TrEMBL record:
GO molecular function, one term: oxidoreductase activity
Official protein name in the record: Short-chain dehydrogenase
Domain of life where this protein originates: Bacteria
Pfam families attached to this UniProt entry: adh_short
Keywords attached to this entry: Oxidoreductase
SUPFAM superfamilies: NAD(P)-binding Rossmann-fold domains (SSF51735)
Cross-referenced InterPro entries: NAD(P)-bd_dom_sf, Sc_DH/Rdtase_CS, SDR_fam
Family as reported in the entry's similarity comment: Belongs to the short-chain dehydrogenases/reductases (SDR) family.
Length: 272
């Protein structure tokens, strides 16, 4: 049997790196996307095939799919993992940051799936999108990020239904808190936005707390990666995989708590 091939985006750290390791260990050839040259060497050392990919440049996707077709002749699993968290009061977010949030997290994954569709059809393959509990539970100072992940949930549902007749399966992962660089990158972005001129200057501690919330009691990324690998190997592919701290409880809270109670809890938690 020929070696199965997985293409994973955002492999420099966190979940993408753990997924690369898990799929390599399971015998896949892993094409691991990174943004920076320097991030290629560690992945190469693991046995992956690193390549440069910026999700903000969807015009590069067709050439990438062609490279995979030429080198491998197949693609079994596409994992849309790369993502950013643009944190801060919604009305303080500049237009470009709002656009970047939705381009990287929502638009680019659809376009990458489109570029890879011929290969995925041939192999009767699988698309895995990384959503989030934040797609269910909207918190203050993360409106753009939560909206982007709610959109990923809707896009994944539509893709799953539309790709079914073509023999391509779709699985969405909805992580809770997972140990990664996500809190550090989100916090760095939020710090650049916090300003004395903002009406939300008095609430800056809440902004900081939200930007780093993904690293509150986080589950190791390797645990999530194993769960995803196992789900990807099932013949009855599940539509959704939840893993990580809060991945089950937070959507339940969002669904069942009366809106007034939930708002009061969130306002207290983030100092509003
Ligand atoms: N950690 C959590 O608690 C958690 C919870 C729910 C969902 N998620 C989701 O899980 C996914 C992975 O995040 P993570 O937690 O592993 O965080 P991470 O360690 O910060 O990893 C994010 C990855 O995305 C890459 N990336 C960011 N912007 C990109 C762009 N424009 N083009 C290509 N790659 C880009 C980053 O590359 P650079 O190193 O170059 O920035 C990095 O490799 C994200 O979609 C995130 O929303 C995470």
């Amino acid at each position: 049997m020929r070696t199965p091939v997985a293409l994973i985006t955002g492999c420099s750290s966190g979940i993408g790196l753990a997924l690369s390791q898990a799929f390599l260990k399971a015998g896949y050839r892993v094409w691991a996307g990174v943004r920076k040259e320097a991030d290629q060497a560690p992945l190469q050392a693991l046995g992956a095939r690193p390549f440069l990919l910026d999700m903000q440049k969807p015009e590069d996707f067709p050439a990438l799919a062609e490279r995979v077709a030429t080198f491998e002749g197949r693609l079994d699993v596409l994992i849309n993992n790369a993502g950013i968290g643009v944190m801060g009061p919604l009305l303080d977010l500049p237009h470009e940051r709002l656009q970047q949030q939705f381009l990287v997290n929502c638009v680019a994954p659809v376009q990458l799936a489109r570029a890879c569709l011929p290969l995925l059809r041939q192999s009767q393959g699988l698309v895995i999108n990384i959503g989030s509990v934040s797609g269910y539970l909207t918190t203050p100072f993360a409106g753009a990020y939560c909206a982007s992940k709610a959109a990923v949930h809707a896009l994944s549902d539509a893709l799953r239904l539309e790709l079914a007749p073509l023999g391509v399966r779709v699985l969405e992962v909805q992580p809770g808190a997972i140990a990664s660089d996500f809190g550090a990158s989100s916090s760095q972005g939020a710090e650049q936005l916090i300003s004395e001129q903002s009406p939300w200057w008095p609430f800056r501690d809440g902004i900081r707390a939200r930007a780093n919330a993904s690293q509150d009691k986080p589950t190791p990324a390797a645990v999530l990666a194993q769960r995803v690998l196992r789900a990807s190997q099932r013949s009855d592919t599940p539509a959704i995989v939840r893993a990580g701290y809060g991945s089950r409880s937070l959507p339940l809270l969002a669904q069942w708590l009366p809106r007034r109670v939930l708002d009061a809890l969130l306002r207290r938690r983030f100092g509003l």
